[in-house]
Amino acid sequence: MVERNDGFVEPAGTAAYFADIADWPEHERQAFEAVTGRVLDVGAGAGRASLAAQERGMEVVALDVSPGAVEVCRRRGVEQTVLGGIEAATGTFDTFLYLGGNLGLIGSPGAAPAFFGALGALGGPEARIIGTGLDPYGTTDPDHLAFHEENRRQGRMPGELSIRIRRRLVTTGWIDLLWLSLSELAALAAPHGWHVAESWSHGPLYSVVMTSS
Amino acid sequence: MVERNDGFVEPAGTAAYFADIADWPEHERQAFEAVTGRVLDVGAGAGRASLAAQERGMEVVALDVSPGAVEVCRRRGVEQTVLGGIEAATGTFDTFLYLGGNLGLIGSPGAAPAFFGALGALGGPEARIIGTGLDPYGTTDPDHLAFHEENRRQGRMPGELSIRIRRRLVTTGWIDLLWLSLSELAALAAPHGWHVAESWSHGPLYSVVMTSS
Fold first, then answer.
1. How far does CA B71 lie from the centroid of its chain?
2. Closest residue to B168, CB basis, from A10, A168, A171
3. Does this model's pTM top 0.80?
4. Which residues of B touch A143 (CB under 8 A)?
5. Which of B210, B20, B1, B208 is nearest to B101 (CA)?
C-alpha cells in the first residue's frame, strides 16, 4: 500500500509494473512512439518500458534506486541496468523515459533546476523527455482537495507530496513527488530550456514529449 | 488495511462482515447451531451474526464500540443495538457471541479475569460463549514467527498483539488482541469457571462453545 505524508493510505497493485505495451494506457503508447536513439529509463521499476524499447532495437539503460527493481529488470531480460539516481548514469542519451507517473520524481519546485539541469548535461543535441504525470487538479475527492489546501497554506504547490510504500514488514523511505498540471510543468521546465512539444491525456493522467532548446 | 504493532501491514476486505450465514465458514455455522435464548453479539460489526440469530427468532442485542458499526447494524435491520463495550450491556444473556475472530478481544492474559468475570455476571445459569479464535501456532510465516519470538522475549504470550485499521485518512485507535490455541484458551478460561464444551476447526481458525459452571 501507499502511505502519503498526511497519513492517507491506499492499496496499490503491482500488475501495471509488468504490463506489456499492448496493455499500457493509450496516452503512454502514443508518447512512446517518439522514443528514439539511446534511452535512459528513469525509475525503471520492473522494466516494462526498457523491455519495450529494447524489443524495438533501441539501446536502453534501466536506472532505478531500488536494488530489487534492478534485479527484477535484469531477470526479465533488460540488458543494461544501473543502480542509483540520475547521477549514476553515464554517457549521452537521446531519450529520457519517465513513464508510469515518473515525472512526479521532479520531486519539488526547488529540485526542478537540478532535475532539468542533469538531463541537459546527459542529453544529446536532440534530447527529449518522454514521461507521464498526474494533473492534481483533476480530482473532486475532498481528502485530496484538503491536502492541496494544506499545501497552499504552507506555501507549497498543491501537488507536492511525499509517499512511502509499505508491504507486510517492509517500508521504503519517504519519496518526494510533485504532481503538476501540464501548464505548471511547462512553466517549471521552460527556464531550464525544456518545452512541451506534444501531449496526450486521459482524465488527470497525461503523457508528454518534451524537447530541449 | 490492518497495521500490527510491529509495523506489519496487510490488506483487509470487508465482504466477510456482510456475509449471509450460508457463506460463513463451516466451523462458525456448526457452532452457531448452539446459539440459544437471549443473545449478546459482542463486536457485532455489520451485524451478520445478530441478523442470523434474529431471523431464527432469538432476542439479540448487537454491541459494538464503533458508532459506525452500530449505525450499520441498525440500518440492516438489527432491532436492538448498544454502543459501547461489555460494560454497556444490561440484563441477562444466555449466549455471548464472539464470531469473526472476536475471541481475540480477550485482549491479553491480564485482561482475561475481567473478560470472563463480566460474562459470568451477565450470564444466566446456562450461559454459553460461542466464538471463534485463531491458533497463532498454525503459521509458518517467518514474519509471524519472528513476532511470536519477540513477544516471548518480552515475557508476553506469542499471540498478543495490537492492531489498528486504516483506510484513506481514517485510523482507528489501537485494539489489543490475544490469539490463543484451544488449549491456551481452555487454560485461561478455567480459573473463571468457563470450559470448552465443543470445538470445530479449519486450519488455524476454530469455533468453540464454552459453558460456565
1. 19
2. A10
3. yes
4. 168-169
5. B208
